[in-house]
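[Meeting: bench + compute handoff]

Bench side (C.D.) handed over the final construct sequence. Compute side (W.E.) agreed to return the predicted structure before the next meeting so the bench team could plan truncations. Sequence as handed over:
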Amino acid sequence: MKKWMIVAVVALLATLALAPTASAAETLEEPRLGLLGRGVLWAGGTGHVELAGAGVVRLAVNGDVSIVDEAGDARIWVRGIPLADDSSLTLEDFRGQVRVTGSDFTVTVDGRVLLRAAGAGSALLEGTGRYRIRHDGWGRWSVEGVEIAYSAA
């Protein structure tokens, strides 16, 4: 049953062609929670994405990426290779995968993105795509933008 569920989720995300996941419970201005690995956000689409939070974020990107470590404890991997200087990173016209872990970081993407964020945080999604928050269902994001939050609550 577990293998079937994983296959179904992967197939669905592939079908959505980078559809983003988000929840409208909190905004980017609200305090971030330090609950690692509890809330999960899946999102995919094209446009502008701002993510602020704690935990782990995995991205598949075709565009520009900017990562800022607000707490000084983030770890960043680009295409599976850990970076020595983890405080911040900017990649222009990047195509590949990025992973970030930490207790307080921000990630900004302009372009096509497929992401999975686990932990607690908030996201602003502008453009076109879809998102899902664990236990909260699917949603769409548009040019007007949608602000969402993901956490254990």
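W.E. noted at the follow-up: Residues 2-150 form one domain. C.D. will use this when planning the next construct.
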